[in-house]
Amino acid sequence: MAEIKLRSAGRILARQGILVAFAIFMIGFALANDRFLDVDNILGVIRSSAIIGVMALGVTFVVISGNLDLSVGSLMSFSTIVVLDLHDKIGPGLGILAMFAMTLTIGALIGFLVGYLRLNSLIVTLGMLSAIHGLTLTYSGGKNMDIADKQGTWFSFYGQGTVMGIPVPILILVILAVVLSFLLGKTPFGRKIYAVGGNGVAATFSGIPRARTVFNCYLISSFCVATAGLIQASRSLGSQNTVGQGLELQVLAAVILGGASLLGGSGTVIKTVIGVLILGFIQNGLLLVGLEFYFQYVVTWAIIILAVWLDIAVKRGHLWSPIA
Predict the structure, then answer these.
(1) CA dist 193 to 185, 218, 267, Å?
(2) What are the tens digits of pLDDT across the range 89-145?
(3) Would you give the DSSP letter of residue 259?
(4) Which residues in 24-36 are b (16+ Cβ under 10 Å) and which e?
(5) What backbone phi and psi angles, to 5 degrees, belong to 241?
(6) Across the strands, what pairs with 239?
(7) What confidence tens digit (pLDDT) does each residue in 281-313 have?
(8) Residue among 136, 129, 130 at smallest CA distance from 82
(9) DSSP state, 33?
(10) For the structural domain made of 18-146+153-312, what CATH number should be given?
(11) Out of 175, 216, 261, 275, which residue is the most buried by the measure of CB atoms under 10 Å away?
(12) Is the pTM of this model over 0.85?
């Protein structure tokens, strides 16, 4: 009986362990600093997490389809630099449209390589990470970008504005999460993504267009990246050309924390949002208790390892490998 209870507890921990750990972190941070649960601090954390969150929503589609996208950080840098540059050249409205078109074109290229040519997504997106970074440096001439007239533009609304007291980046994250959650969970297209990620061969023999489904997932991911780039550019009205460097790991960590399997076929948009908030509040708590910001990288690494371990544990039904 004790062994059965222990195995049951192990399965529960494997499925919900990250939420248990998050609850422990939250309680500990709240006891360590009374500012942690302030409304202003909570809104600030969600607002600062919006860029990672928006990108993670798109990457969720890619991961569920059984693929990876490590190019989102470099692509976000590209989007941010392009929209800032075009703001002064052709105006904010046309600049935004042109930036989305250029970002979606790159996303379509990645989707074509992975979906239609059946190339390994890890290799393709890792290569595109470097290629897009080089493209960004070439486009900007190696210089940072700034808007000339920062006081007289409505462009700042997307990153700095509020609606009924709620920061616009939070509203964008919520609206995208609702729309994409419906698309993934309530439409035939969403069911095709799960089928392709769960068993691509079976999905193909069932008549599901695997290549087109994967292609569309990368389009959704690039759209979310462009939206994140818009928020980033609007927030600061200027940017370094490496602003998105390294964000791909945080995005992937958030998606995995939300329960999406690296093997494909599982995950939800809402749980990805929870994963984003877990990362955001843990990083905020570490700062409030006095740890240096660079310690966040160590914590992010540890969280990724923990999340992958729990993901594999759920698949095999045990926290520990029976071979070990």
Answers:
(1) 10, 12, 11
(2) 999 999 999 999 999 999 999 999 999 999 999 999 999 999 999 999 999 888 888
(3) T
(4) ebbeebeeebeeb
(5) -80, 5
(6) 145
(7) 888 887 887 777 677 677 767 766 776 676 666
(8) 136
(9) -
(10) 1.10.3470
(11) 275
(12) yes
